[in-house]
């Protein structure tokens, strides 16, 4: 008489911490925004949507947008890092 035993499986529980996020490489983000912007400018010029003097103000626009995106990512990453660093701090006792 053979007895077969079923392997018991433990229910897996996930940690209750914040969900893990993939770190953003800010340099890649900035260059990606710049590339997409320059591609968009090229498409507008190639499609004769923009011509003449309008190109002068349109060409720096992708670089400005990429810089703003990089600054926003930098501030967001720093704010998240400071929030983690301050976790568990104890308030100083009140002096009366």
Describe the structure.
With 96 residues, this protein is an all-alpha fold. It has a domain of 59 residues.
Helix/sheet category: mainly alpha
| Residue fraction in strands | under 5%
Q: Helical stretch count?
A: 3
Mean pLDDT: 79
Overall 3D form: flat
Helix % is 40-55%
What is the end-to-end distance? Answer: 79 Å
Short description:
The protein is mainly α.
Note the topology.
Elements: H1 26-46, H2 54-58, H3 61-85
Helix pairs in contact: 1-3
Key attributes of the depicted protein:
single chain; about 100 residues; mainly alpha; 3 helices; about 55% helix; about 0% strand
